[in-house]
Amino acid sequence: MHIVVPSSSNTFQKSWIASGRILLLIAISGLGAIGLVVLSALWAGTESDAAALDRQRQLVNARLREQVDQVAHVIGQFGNGYLARVYPASRSADVSSSLDTVLTGAAGSAISETAMSAFGYDQAFVVDEKAQLSMLTDAKTEKRYRWMKPLFLPLLKDGRLTASQNPIFSDRTPSSLESRRASAVRPNHALANLMRLEGRPTIVGIVAINEAPGGHPQPMRQFLIVVRFLDGAALDELSRQQGLNGARFARTADADENEVAFQIDATANGEPIGFIVWRPDLPGSRVIGRLMPALSIAALVIAALFSVLLVRLRSSLGELKRSELHARQLALHDVLTGLPNRALFAMRFEECVTQTRHSTERSAVALLDLDRFKAVNDTFGHAAGDELIRMAAERIRSVLRPDDTLARLGGDEFALLLRDIKDDDHILRSICDAIVAELGRPFPLLRGEAVARVGGSIGITIVPDAGRTADDLMRYADVALYEAKMGGRGQWRVYSPSMDGGRNARDILKNELREVLAKGTAASADSPQPGPGGSKPDFGSLEVYYQTVHRAEGGYSASGAEALVRWRHSQRGLLTPASFIPAAEEGGLIDALGFWVLREACRAACKWPEDTFVAVNVSPAQLRRPNFAGEVFAVLEETGLPPSRLELELTESSLIEDNSDVHTVLKSLRSRGVQISLDDFGTGFSCLSHLVRFDIDRIKIDRSFVSQLGAKATGAAIIGAIVTLSRNLGISTTAEGVETEYQRDFLTALGCTDLQGYFFSKPVPLRELDCFAKSESGAGSRTIASGATA
Predict the structure, then answer these.
(1) Closest Cα to residue 668, out of 619, 703, 707, 631?
(2) Which string of b and e fits 411-428 if b means at least 16 CB within 10 Å?
(3) In the prediction, which pLDDT does 655 show?
(4) Contact (CB, 8 A) for 23 and 302
(5) pTM of the predicted structure, to 2 decimals
(6) What stretches of 222-282 show up as alpha helix (H) in DSSP?
(7) Cβ neighbours around 373 below 10 Å, total
(8) How confident is the model at residue 467 (pLDDT cuts 50, 70, 90)?
(9) 413 in helix, strand or coil?
(10) Which of these, 123, 276, 353, 475, could form a disulfide with 227 (CB 3.0-4.6 Å)?
(11) Distance, CA of 323 to CA of 130 (rounded, Å)
């Protein structure tokens, strides 16, 4: 990888011209686009205002017509109802007299009062066909009527008021009874017109309120005239219904700049009788008013930026070159530690391998991995993890020579390139011992609030002795690193061909574990096993250890035990789950391994007292199996252990990965009585909804909180909160990692229901588990091994 730096001034000049042209085109395009947007917005706003204003005018006109029609309809119904109720006898008997068909003044006054009080009209008059009042009135009302009388005369002479008197003909001659019925129900026609009264826009309605039955003479027709002014309550109601802001009546179109005037025309002759003035709701103008400042500012900003960009183009190109160099620096270095990253280390390593092929120089490449780094991240958070990475990098760098390369590959993985190793034993030993010692010292984190002890493991391969290609050398270093971890961590190993014969260390472990599980499955089926002289090698056996769980009350008697798998490797000694569980998950062996542990634990628990339980850890991969619940039930049926004595321990990550499938599996298990426990509560993605949604039976308080008792107040506070929450939800609590009498007594006082830790018992094989009376006469620990028996 090479860095190309342009040095020609001609190239720089061409770049400047090309960039200037591009900026000019961008500026012109931007200004043109903004201009089009502004023009489009103005046009759209104007059209929207016109449409909105036209719509409001149409609505006002329609509402006025509706009010006119409503007045005609109401007084028509009033007149018909009055005729039907006041003179039913005369109409039904087909008899007419002047007393029945001519209203008295008192009756006319009653009708007028009824029209105004019941229907809310501003004025009501009862008059005869000559426009004379047929009602009792005071002087003020009579004077007011004289001013209005000339305007009422055209309505009284309107031919539509007499249309109802024309007979209705049909194909046959109706009987006398039918004639009487038709005459009784024949409706009166009512009229309503818009006109100006007293200088105000008014709706005037008129209807006949007395009428002789058909065929009889009418001595005098009388009419009800109602008046409703539009510039009072009617206008207020109209403005509320139609949303007319600030509506008012004006005799002339004297609207202000921000108002509009709607002309009201008389119904009879179409002459203007006034104007309704209001402030219209113009959405287009409102949008334009809000948009134009932003568009104007945008145009000014673009113009200013264009000017600044043109002025600073030459300096920007220089800054761009420096930025490119800085970006390359970032691309080849780790952001967190400032060390070379994987890409730069690969470049230097390839260069080293190429040089050593044609020289006698010897170099070494090493892979370094921090031990127990995940526990620090999970316990103290990612901020503490990042701080630990930086401190570890500083400590490693402090013991290296100036020409050595230290790189961070990712996470807690580092790589070392040690050039010019002449006395390799002395240099490697001194450097690696110093690194291991530095990483073994405590790391104060979070400004001294936490202390982490991690350590580190190193795997080394020699260049060019171990291989020819860089990939082979890195793989050999990874094999040596794995050997260092398998040997107990906190140490370093130099690769030798005997470690894996050229195979990857993890693949070796997966193949060995597969062989052990295969032999164990065959042993469980009582199939013949190969003898010591068989062709397949013996990689040891799997064993189940048990760590007891004790009740916090009643003398701390054992309430159950947790099953923990161990691998007694024939060459590497006793391996803990952390050493081979990841390999089992990668190789697809976790299901077989998990069910073997479940079966062995259930068999052992059958010989324990009936009031005890056995807890078995379940991996997320097992929970994702749709038939996991059925397989658990099959193991319980095979071993004879009641489901209520089995407790499955889950991690919160299992619940997060696949809520729907896991919920179905756990619901099926709990329906048969299997207990569910949530392990390491509070250290992962703790979610209180899990406790209710998945119906958890037990919470296991992580040992990281228990270890803080007596040292930090936060530990007691967190444990107390968890215990209180569990008690309120009816969930049992088990505190892990109890190592002192003080912790035992304190946790008991807080209300924990069960305790577990080295203070009571370390994980031991079944044959050494003597706290259960029934287990003393039981069989020894069950293992998977060549020739093992049930």
Answers:
(1) 631
(2) ebbbbbbbbebeebeebb
(3) 62
(4) no
(5) 0.43
(6) 233-242
(7) 20
(8) low
(9) strand
(10) 123
(11) 102
